[in-house]
Amino acid sequence: MTDSNLIGFGIVLAVGCIAVILGWMGEDSDRSNPSEEKVTELQQQCQRLREELTSQKLQLTSDFSNATFEQLQTLFVTYPSACKMAQTMPTLPARNLVALFTPLENLLQSWSIEAIGSPWQSVSYDPQLHQPDVDDIAIGESVYIRFVGYRHIGETVSHQILCPAKVSRTLPAINPE
User: Which residue range forms the structural domain that includes residue 69?
Assistant: First the structure.
């Protein structure tokens, strides 16, 4: 670059900086005395952001509990039946372990998840809540819950089925020997 080009560039740069500074100073004078409209607009934006944050928190909590439930689903489905068998057969050494499952029940309650039925309970078949072990079970037919199912309860979720209860026409054969 020549000296004249550098001088021209310096002048353009200086004028540009002055324009930016003057524009910035004009914005600052607007900020020192904000209009009621701007204040109201900022308050509304703040409220929207708070609502979004609350919504995101609820969604993250729901996503976490759903992901964790999926990982523990097999345990949740089988342990009520194992407890029932242990209670029915007092000679089983597992009878003393039933109390150890109380924390799992508390965890489900804290997540607003409830069991669909209880092991060996006689219920009317409902395809929305139950998964039959055979295809020819009719709606309303009397069946037994072999393995409980689970669903969300509460205000944020409308009884979403997480896994249906597994049902059968007959109870399992128990041989206490």
Answer: 34-168
